[in-house]
Request: fold
Amino acid sequence: QVRLVESGGGLVQTGGSLRLSCAVSQSLFSIDTMGWYRQAPGKQRELVATIPRWGSRIYADSVEGRFTASRDNAKNTVWLQMNSLMPEDTGVYFCNAKLTEGDYWGQGTQVTVSS
Reply:
């Protein structure tokens, strides 16, 4: 059982920044792919970024150039740096870990961007 705990969400004005963190209960050296997803009110959950242990990160077109995802395997932590935030970035942001037995999710952290 892997536990993921997100933090760092909040209310910010358009153009502002937030940094989300995800603390993972299992060593990230054993998890190939971590990811960030978000879910806006009334919409389906969507991929924001994937952070593979090896290789390039992948970002949704809507956040490319504004968001930066990173991981520190030694600290068992994943981050999402969000800059130039826009109202359409509002939603609950979830951390995801992809293991061979399935996906694990955190409880989510709310991000609200005011116009």
Q: What stands out?
A: The mean pLDDT is 96. DSSP finds no helices and eleven strands in the chain.
